[in-house]
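Subject line: Sequence and fold of a protein, written as structure tokens
Body of memo: The sequence and its backbone structure tokens, given next.
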Amino acid sequence: MSAKIKVLVVDDSLTMRGLISAALKSDPEIEVVGTAADPIEARAAIKELNPDVLTLDVEMPNMNGLEFLEKIMRLRPMPVVMVSTLTAAGTDVTLAALEIGAVDAVAKPAVASVDAFHDLIEKVKTAARSRVRARADMPASAAAPSAYRPAASHILAIGSSTGGVEALLTVLSGFPANCPATIITQHMPATFTASFAARLDRVCAPTVTEAYEGAQLKAGHIYLAPGGAAHLELTPGMTPRCHLVQSDPVNGHRPSVDVMFESLVRLKRPMTGVILTGMGKDGAKGLKAIRDAGGRTLGQDESTSVVYGMPKAAFELGAVERQLPLHRLSPAILELCADSGARSIA
């Protein structure tokens, strides 16, 4: 991208608008074209300034950020990065925003400073390269099958990043209550993963929890790697269990998709790996290891990925057996993990 990324900053706090603007202006690839104190000002500024990316506060006067985001995604879809408080309510609203179509989110720091918004710079750059579509343009995922039996020893691992909240909701909503034993690594701040697991548990048929040390893998249970503090691995044995490893970031991430995939390969069991939307290349090498070991692999296609980075890296490495649009992944995954041993992909 040769031209600067044009950003509109929307926040009801004058101080916060100044800090966010200063942080973004410190990067030569970004231009803050304007600020707005509420959605009414923001709507006028969007029409006048035509920004590439919007940073949006969750709680604002006249119309909260969630309501405004819904209007944006319906009337003028564009990349939005949410700026959230660290409260439980703020986290829940931010997750709802990511479901609606916000590309990513950052948490407001406890102590406000320009340096505290360093992560926002990279998220804005990623958002500028993302593919944002109106929700009405996205096909619905297939319904969960009424009768399904997963292979007893089969393990499913899914990796995702930017755009992954919406993608995971779409995929997992097509899973039956007795889905394959599943582990997930989604790049997400530590403050969000517990709430996201709880959200998935409420809307999906299987039991979804944040992974914890020693959690036993079994059909009907899905474990989401906790954000920030550790990598999610699996320990070998008759019954594999979750193991949280507090080691350095891999590919710039902790938890890392590659670490999760590679631990699955070491188990030498029937396995399926899936790579979804996300920036970068985390998961590509691990998915290739799964395929090389005889496991099955799927990747989200470019047309439905918010950011076709991780799936592209895996595909170009030869790690992806087949790419599919998001709405077709659930039935394909279930078929590969089924007790019937069917191996054709819908």
